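Data availability excerpt. The first of two example chains:
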Amino acid sequence: MDGEPGRGEVTVCVAVPGPVDAAAGTGSGRHGPGRTVAGTVTVLGPGVPACLRGRPVLTRAEDGVADRRLVVPADDVVVLPGRPGPEPAAGLADDAGTALRALALTPVRAGQDVLVLPAATGPGALLVRLLTDAGARVVGVVRGARAARSALGLGAVHAVDHGRRGWVAGVHALLPAGPAAVFDGAGGTVGRAAAWLVADGGRYTSFGTAFGPAPDFGPCEPRARRITVATTS
């Protein structure tokens, strides 16, 4: 849909179109055919709060619609963490591309338990929303109360602070059988701990190394635990 936004609507400049996902929901909770797309709010219709201008968001596009400018109800956008301004569109395109590559490498079914870290910024934030839309139960690993609120707002069912002692035990208590998939954008000691949590027969995908190198599984661990290991790089 193109044109100028009406009352209660916004124009979203699409950075990266997402995959078709007929089951995914919108920010308002309504469901319909289409796909999740990432973009930036560029134009506000009457009655829309000014704070939405320039914000990076997720929204829905109908199947077959390839427009780079979408007019959608303001209630149907999910605001992502990030500062408004001219830069978000380029950064969002990179983040969305990384998130979509991770999902292509590691398909997730509705009802599966998934661990995402970090879950409140960059590709991790997009993954939380996309996985939630697909019906997965997402536990987000974050740092700090503000990031926890962001992850929960994006759809995570729980947010665990890796800055607190015992966070790994906390995740294990929430997912005693282990997550079916781990999406790790952290690396370092945090990523290694998350890798140990993967359920036998599960999947581990590295999409970033914010805190250090991706875990080195060695030649034997994936085979012994029947883990599928992938990386977006």
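And the second chain:
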Amino acid sequence: MPMILSPILSLAEIDIYLTRFSEIKSSNLVDFHKLLSEDELLRLDLIKSKEAKYAYIASRGLLRKIICCNFQLDNNSLDFSYSSDGKPRFSCLTSPSAESKKFNLSHSGDYFILAIGEVELGIDIQFTGGNILFYRMLHNILDKQEMSEFSKLPLHDQNKAFYRIWSRKESVLKYLGKGLSYPMPKIMASLSPNIEVDLFLINSGSTGRAITRDLDFQLKNYVSAITWYVG
């Protein structure tokens, strides 16, 4: 599948890859399964639903394929580790210099997205066409100012706006290596096109600045955002 091995977008020394699960052939899925490590196979066994198993095999296989092709690595030498909050890192005994690369991935609905760069980053994609009753989740995600902005939107715009803010905040959480237990209202994500985030406001242990930006791939019923370190 050559389409997934080249970035669809390059942004501030970050390469972004996007592909559809539905375009992955069954033969590719078998090949991806063979790429998984023992630890990944154990994680796969814990997944119950058929759809979730498919997404796991596809996303992990794509991740390994893209990293190995871009850095000329052997899959057997590639390993992954995770922070206490679940943020992934990769290591490779045959190419220590590649370990400086940062990556983050997300999948939702039919799409998989991956970002690889020289700086800390987080990326997220959300399917907006589901049946989630988003208004029940607003107070868990928005702060008072965002709630005020949101309430002024026409009703027909609120569904996409909700997922847009959610995607932005998810990308910040993944950038910081924070889990979903972190209070989302503490993360600023207004409805403006681009947002600069002061890290010290959301994580007293961080310094410097990050930018959160929407990614517009013209996908029906999808929104995506990325956050990356700018110094």
